[in-house]
Amino acid sequence: MRHPLIRTPLRYAIIGIFLYGTLFLLLYFMDNNPLVVGRPWDFGFLLIPLMLFFAMKDFKTNYNEGELRFWQGMSIGFVTYFVLAFGVALFIYIFMTFADPGILEGYIQDRIQLLETRKEQFIKLLGEELYDEQIIKMNHTTAFIVALDEFWKKLVIGLFLTILIAAVLRK
User: Fold this and answer.
1) pTM for the full model?
2) Residue in 154, 8, 165 with CA at minimum distance from that of residue 90
3) Which residues have C-beta within 8 Å of that of residue 79, sequence separation ≥ 6?
4) How far is 15 from 84, CA to CA, in rounded Å?
């Protein structure tokens, strides 16, 4: 773990997890549900490109004599976004399971309300059977499902952004 190709992205992933947790708790202590309030503009998706950029730039500038090959950028990006996504998902799961299980109920109610406000569009596009199925699925949502959803979303955006940032910062 002394190699900068691993150490650098781990450092930025941990910083990202800390920042995400801080923003999450800040919203929570302001009597907002961070899973609902943060949805339109998820601050986790703002942290991913920042942490990816700074991890690659740090490695390029401080450990690799101003040079960054594409494979190095991809490697740094993968470690950064994977650890960040896993850490955020774990934080959300632990918070919803142990700190405040009521936050999950608020999330479920918000998602159902969103489905109900767009009911006509949803039924027109996908049919009433699928709409009813989605309502049932939302009522059976667990903390694990929400955390897993966060994990996958952050992995997908992380991969896409890693390719872009690594291409921009190479050489």
Assistant:
1) 0.89
2) 154
3) 6, 9, 10, 13
4) 9
